[in-house]
Amino acid sequence: MQPFLNFLKTRKGAFTGAAAGIVAVAIIVSGVIFIGRARTSTQPSTTGAAAFNGCPGAAVQPNWPGNAALTIAPADANSIKTIAAGNDLEFVLPSNAVWKFSRQNGNLQLLQPAGYFDSTRSACIWRFSAPSAGESQLYFTRQMLCKPGNVCSGIIILYTFTIQAQ
After folding, report:
1. 4-8, 41-45, 50-54 — most confident range
2. In what order do the strands lie in the sheet with 88-94?
3. pTM of the model
4. Are strands 80-83 and 97-105 parallel, antiparallel or unpaired?
5. Which of 5, 63, 96, 138 has its CA 20 to 30 A from that of 15?
6. How many Cβ atoms sit within 10 Å of the Cβ of residue 96?
């Protein structure tokens, strides 16, 4: 893999337009979709280890009334998780990757702040409320965290989570 990355670094900017498609990759493994191509990071430069993470939100301390009844991790993708209606659930996704909440089908309510960085858990956190019974599917994407100026994999991994509120 390193020789390929070195090749891409020497060709920085050479893969644009139709030629960029030649470097594109698409793989499907166990229902998780990997799509991407090499990219140069444009993430703003930050200082300090806690500042460089893949969370879309800043480090904050939300004032939620208690712990979530259900915690979801990447390993829970492509399975059904159950929660009692009226409870909250949290997605705890490792901050060593760039995470984005894509969309949902169902009745879960996204609470704010969304996608914040939790320094205690070194994770990006999304909290949802399950106000009533029903099934919801949530979609998150994960991409390699890339330091500014580096050429990194452009592969995007799609995670699908199914939550059953009863």
Report:
1. 50-54
2. 70-72, 88-94, 123-129, 109-118
3. 0.70
4. unpaired
5. 96
6. 13
Cis-peptide into 113, omega within 30 deg: yes
Q: What is the spatial distance between Cα 74 and Cα 160, in angstroms, rounded to a whole number?
A: 9
Q: Are 115 and 127 in contact (CB under 8 A)?
A: no
Give the pLDDT confidence score for residue 51 in this predicted structure: 59
CB within 8 A of 129, min separation 6: which ones? 87, 88, 108, 109, 111
Q: Are 38 and 152 in contact (CB under 8 A)?
A: yes
Q: Which pair of tokens denotes residue 32?
A: 């998780």
Largest pairwise CA distance in the chain: 55
DSSP structure class, residue 59: B
